[in-house]
TrEMBL record:
Similarity comment: family membership: Belongs to the pyridoxal phosphate-binding protein YggS/PROSC family.
PANTHER family according to UniProt: PROLINE SYNTHETASE CO-TRANSCRIBED BACTERIAL HOMOLOG PROTEIN, PYRIDOXAL PHOSPHATE HOMEOSTASIS PROTEIN
Keyword Magnesium: no
Modified residues (N6-(pyridoxal phosphate)lysine): 36
One matching Pfam family: Ala_racemase_N
Name of the protein in its database record: Pyridoxal phosphate homeostasis protein
Alphabetical list of NCBIfam families matching this protein: YggS family pyridoxal phosphate-dependent enzyme
Keywords for this protein: Pyridoxal phosphate
A Gene Ontology molecular function term of the record: pyridoxal phosphate binding
Cofactors required: pyridoxal 5'-phosphate
SUPFAM superfamilies membership: PLP-binding barrel
Amino acid sequence: MYDLSKARQQVLAQIYQACETAQRNDESVTLLAVSKTHPSDAIHAMYTAGQRDFGENYLQEALTKIDTLKALDIAWHFIGHIQRNKTKAIAEHFSWVHGVDRFIIAERLSNQRPADLPALNVCIQVNIDQQESKDGCHPDDVMLLVDQIQALPQIHLRGLMVIPAPGHDQAFFDAEQLFKAVAARYPYLQMWDTLSMGMSGDLTPAIAAGSTMVRVGTALFGARDYSSS
Ligand SMILES: *Cc1c(COP(=O)(O)O)cnc(C)c1O
């Protein structure tokens, strides 16, 4: 049987090693387990192994799992593309949203966040290496978006999220530059602390460039099978 706990230990060891090489505190990087396409049982097993943050891309699939696992103390992160008509369900069921790249989406999330829940944690997705077919705002638009989004009452603006093209490690450093430039320009942003970047194949270079949250699927759960979905 595939040993999820062992897989998690190996990924954590890789994170610690990358932190050591980069002379960073190993507690400065959070492991986000990307559980899309994997069943609730696998998430439960990963939870038992100590994992608390889980990322999902597909809303319907995620809502089913969130309901099944509602007794567990899980922080759910929405990391997929956000359609306008999906913001209400996302605002109601998730703690974090990583893929915000337009003000209208952030505004809807803020308006639709239930008043009895803490503010929704949001990262702005940036198309850092300006790939043609990718989501994310243009790097030049980040400052304006920060300025607009930080004023929303039910949003905690936490940082940036990027998905560079494979092998394009320089983009991680570009993202870090932008992340620091925002911090310098908006020193009153209390919670600007998250640089969401790095996946199974590139978490080491992402951590070298300052990632504070790596989003890891395959290296934790094994290969994804999309045939049944
Ligand atoms: C699927 C996905 C991941 C995880 O990718 P792996 O290569 O399986 O680690 C990370 N981030 C986003 C946005 C994803 O969609």
